[in-house]
Amino acid sequence: MKPKIFIDGEHGTTGLQIRTRLGNRPDLEILSIPEAERRNKDMRADFLNEADIAILCLPDEAAREAVAILEGANSTRIIDTSTAHRVAPGWTYGFAEMDKGQRERIAEARLVANPGCYPTGAIALIRPLVKAGLLSPDHPVSINAVSGYTGGGKQMIAQMEDSSHPEHIAAPHFLYGLPLQHKHVAEMKEHGMLSRRPIFSPSVGRFPQGMLVQVPLHLDELEGAPSLATVHQALADHYAGQDVVEVVPLAESARLARLDPTELAGTDRMKLFVFGTEGKGQVNLVASLDNLGKGASGAAVQNMDLMLKH
Length: 310
Known about the structure:
The protein is an alpha/beta fold. It has 10 helices and 13 strands. The strands form 2 sheets. It has a 7-stranded mixed β-sheet. Helix 1 packs across helix 10. The longest helix is centred in the last third of the chain and has 16 residues.
């Protein structure tokens, strides 16, 4: 019997991408609610209970309501793409490459919290350095990032693409989250193994998909004042054997004159770069990924496949 997959919220940006990715999967049975019935609570509850895995592509409160429907003896497993459960007890964080054994933890879990797109890049850069003893958990970390506008969902897509929209955004690039209270900071801190809240400055560019996440550091403020090569080696060791996360060789990074945030658009991969000049005491760690690929829909499908193997 084919496993039944229900995408609760399949008509939103992340849900549509997941639905497209699963459209040619003959090994799955996709349970689908017509768009006109998407607010039919009884129909949603029936599908949630019938599914082997429910992928929640919902706002936080709606995700919590869906989880509540499945509380108790129900055997439906859940992948939640909202921010509602990313630091909640009892939930497994769905970043498969984050640590050794994380794939197995995801495979065995009933409740999986899909990571945010920005945190995927930030955690990928920060956590290995903390674990290697190079970056103190209480270090004052700053994270700067730019994302494609699809990360803002249907409303932002309309604002960016429709010049007649009453809240049309004409800017080629803009900062947001200016009060430094972005909802992704909690998971960056938790899963980045930081004890001090990082400063996070996100921005959006006039391109649909893609993302760059930057973590600039002074090497003489890190443990042992490591070289660029030492920092790079810590990342390379952490992701050794991975096929999704690539740590770009130092020599290759040194040849780059610019970095395109759309480089990995349409893929589920992530590249990590170590930029700087040896002996100058500074490093800029950069993650490149697709905000809807490894940053959202692609990660959800990856987690689903891991869970189906268990």
